[in-house]
Amino acid sequence: MSLVDSFEKIPVQIFADDKIASAHVAREIADLIRQKQKEGKPCVLGLATGSTPKTLYKELVALHRHQGLSFKNGITFNLDEYYPIEPNALQSYHRFMNTHLFDHIDIDKSNTHVPDGTIDKNDVRAYAATYEKKIELAGGIDYQVLGIGLNGHIGFNEPGSGRHSGTRLVALDNTTRLANAYEFTSIAQVPRLAITVGINTILKARKIVLLGWGIHKAPVIRKSVEGTVTDHVPASFLQEHPNCSFVLDEGAAQELTRFKTP
Ligand code: F6R
User: CB of 136 within 8 A of CB of 166?
Assistant: First the structure.
């Protein structure tokens, strides 16, 4: 590691663009799925929604269609879902996952899990505990895919979320609602709440890969990778994980000290 890279407390891989980066991550996931198939084991994936992983899901669908990659041993757990929301609503993350991935691969849909945005408020606590339990019973997450919010959130763990937080109902930051308003007719339509897995849930994954595209993400990427670990920037907790890496395009990497002050 060079002197400049030593500012970075999380390994960072930088690619020319999001498509090339996504193809790299898709190959890594495919290798893991195939290795688990050889061992006769399930492959447990933690998945994200939003604009960032769309290119990754395209690559995974292409690997299924053109290279025979099977997801029959796949078990998936999504990070989050708006609350309340019906699963067939245009903006629901259930629908997002079907549209972008599950409808196009051979995964058994009963092995896919997205937090339920229709659960009664009184039952959310018990539901959240069950979601965590299901992850445990599946053997824990082998490979967790993350995006990052402009405020450093991972899942919907907004600033202030604790290192030991678990799956729960949270209030969305107004900045997050604004960033996601494009999916709705107006910001007023964006739900104020969401169900998200916690920071602790995420950190239990055996491997974590955070994807980041575009210069708008560059400042928060720098804070997460080079800054102090703080609940003001939830992604900074990833510095405490022994097997986490950030996969970035050139834009998202441009605020790192190695480029800013070479
Ligand atoms: C979504 C999620 C969020 C997003 C983040 C970035 O499941 O967990 O943390 O990854 O809000 O969103 P995009 O990719 O739309 O910039």
Answer: no
Q: How far is Cα 211 from Cα 21, in angstroms, rounded to an integer?
A: 9
Ligand 1 atom with the shortest distance to the CA of 176: 11
255 lines ligand 1 (CB under 6 A): no
> According to the model, what pLDDT value does residue 212 have?
99
Cα–Cα dist 45/207, whole Å = 10
Q: Which residues carry out catalysis?
A: 158
C-beta 153 within 6 A of ligand 1: yes
Closest atom of ligand 1 to CA, residue 196: 8
Query: Which residue puts its alpha carbon closest to atom 12 of ligand 1?
Result: 50
The first and second tokens of residue 7, run together, are: 């500012």
The per-residue pLDDT for 63 is 98
**pLDDT for res 1:** 46
Q: Enter the pTM of the model.
A: 0.97
| 147 pocket-lining for ligand 1 (C-beta < 6 Å) | yes
Rounded CA separation 109/104 (Å):
11
Q: Is the peptide bond before 84 cis (omega within 30 degrees of 0)?
A: yes
Low-confidence ranges of the chain (pLDDT < 70): 1-5, 262
Which residues 6+ apart lie within 8 Å of 223 measured at CB? 152, 233, 235, 236
What does residue 45 show for φ and ψ, rounded to 5 degrees?
-110, 135
Candidate from 156, 177, 195 with most ligand 1 atoms within 8 A of CB, to mutate: 156
Please identify, by atom number, the ligand 1 atom nearest to the C-alpha of residue 180. Answer: 15
Question: Please, which contacts does 39-43 make with residues 24 or more away whose CB atoms are closer than 8 Å?
Answer: 41/73, 41/139, 42/73, 42/74, 42/75, 42/111, 42/138, 42/139, 43/73, 43/74, 43/75, 43/142, 43/143
Tokens encoding 148: 């990052």
